[in-house]
Write a structure and sequence with these properties.
This protein is of the alpha/beta class. The protein has two domains: about 5-190, 3-Layer(aba) Sandwich (Collagenase (Catalytic Domain)), CATH 3.40.390; about 200-385, no CATH class. It has 14 helices and seven strands. It has a five-stranded mixed beta sheet, sandwiched between helices. A two-stranded parallel sheet has the order 3-5. The longest helix is centred in the C-terminal third of the chain and has 35 residues, at about 295-330. It is elongated, with a radius of gyration of 25 Å. The chain starts with 5 loop residues before the first strand and ends in a 5-residue tail after the last helix. The relative contact order is 0.13.
């Protein structure tokens, strides 16, 4: 049986609506270089695409890379591509760097590459199209290697060495045999190029189960602790509600009287509601094809996003519980705790634990409403953009 090819799309996206920098020629030359280097991998099929004039508006510091990723997800799904490299001529804003050459989003298998900074201004480099095309091709190879989860290399002549400035691309010349072997192993695992043919939900469940390691890896790589630090409105909202409740006698009554099963149901419901709210606020819009087919890539992206948000809420839950336990132990006097509740002793260790668990659950539930107002671009950048080159 003939092996199904793994399709890599290289899409020219001319945002400015004109080709005054020779974007077409640069992309064509870079694609040729990209194809030559990867020709020893017979399963790869490289296709050139064009997408002109997307309705993207620049921000204060330039265009946001994650806006391009959303277009990339849509195009990759509709065109049934395993990987998509988008090449544009406009400035791409970076979250932690002064400028951005490329952003490979490993979770979505989409990489955004800008040609704006490939040449140093004030030199003759901007007029040297051969040099720029070669640099662009090497940058494509670098991004493709990162999409395949190949690690960075210390050798400056390797395509996976770190890039501090565009001139570093001139020293890159090869992948090692070990990298090609790792690439061959990772390709079918990372491609996620299956599509549903029958029932949608059966396909979704099957892909979640078969891709659990990749979903877990993507969620952990997003760093839930770092996501939590990007949700100041959520934390402020949660603390506002918790502080109000902890000084109410009814809260202590509930904590002292509620059963373990009742509390567990409340905590589970709080997590489900909070993750639903945050997922709707921060996830990408993952659409099926026009024929209604759901892609494996979208299932993996959605699963990793949801799991990352669940782990983030777990971190915040522990934070709220520890802080509230400290307040209960060191702020409230024992005589007050033992007499404030109506029918049970609120000063027992069990009552304290039920109270802090209840308050932490209320914190993540109420905080999710405030968290949905946090900066979508900041949180998305942590979730979907591990590398900034």
């Amino acid at each position: 049986m003939t092996q199904r090819p793994i399709v890599v799309g290289i899409m020219k996206m001319d945002v400015a609506g004109r080709d005054d920098r020779g974007l077409s020629r640069l992309t064509q030359g870079a694609t040729a270089h990209f194809s030559r280097v990867l020709e020893k991998e017979p399963r790869l099929e490289i296709t050139s695409l064009t997408f002109d004039g997307p309705p993207i508006t620049p921000r204060e510091n330039g265009y946001r890379a994650l806006d391009f990723v959303q277009f990339g997800i849509n195009e990759k799904t509709e065109r049934r591509l395993a990987f998509l490299l988008i090449v544009t001529e406009v400035e791409i804003a970076a979250a932690s760097l002064s400028y951005l050459l490329a952003l490979p989003s490993q979770l979505t298998n989409v990489a955004i590459i800008s040609t704006r900074r490939l040449a140093d201004h004030g030199t003759e480099e901007p007029q040297d199209e051969a040099l720029l095309a070669e640099r662009l091709g090497k940058l494509m190879l670098h991004c493709f290697g990162r999409l395949l989860n190949l690690p960075y290399q210390s050798a400056p002549d390797n395509y996976l060495s770190r890039i501090d400035r565009p001139a570093d691309l001139d020293h890159m010349h090869h992948f090692t045999d070990g990298q090609f072997h790792k690439m061959a192993v990772n390709l079918p695992q990372e491609a996620n190029d299956r599509y549903s043919t029958g029932g949608k939900w059966g396909f979704v469940l099957q892909q979640i189960l078969s891709n659990l390691p990749r979903i877990f890896r993507g969620a952990v790589r997003a760093n839930p602790i770092r996501i939590a630090t990007r949700l100041p409105r959520m934390i402020a909202t949660a603390f506002s509600v918790i502080v109000l409740l902890i000084f109410g006698a009814e809260t202590w009554d509930f904590a002292a009287s509620a059963s373990t099963a009742q509390l567990a149901v409340f905590v589970a419901a709080s997590f489900l509601a909070a993750t639903f709210v945050l997922y709707q606020a921060f996830s990408f819009r993952l659409v099926p094809t026009r024929k209604g087919n759901t892609s494996e890539s979208n299932v993996v992206t959605a699963g990793a996003t949801y799991l990352a948000l669940v782990l983030t809420l777990c971190c915040l839950f522990v934070l709220f519980a520890v802080l509230m336990y400290g307040v209960v132990i060191f702020v409230f006097p024992d005589p007050l705790m033992s007499t404030w509740t109506s029918d049970r002793d609120g000063s027992s260790t069990g009552a304290h634990l039920r109270l802090v668990v209840f308050l932490a659950a209320v914190g993540i539930l109420s905080g999710s409403l405030g968290g949905s107002a946090d900066s979508r671009s900041v949180v998305r950048n942590v979730l979907f953009a591990v590398d900034e080159t």
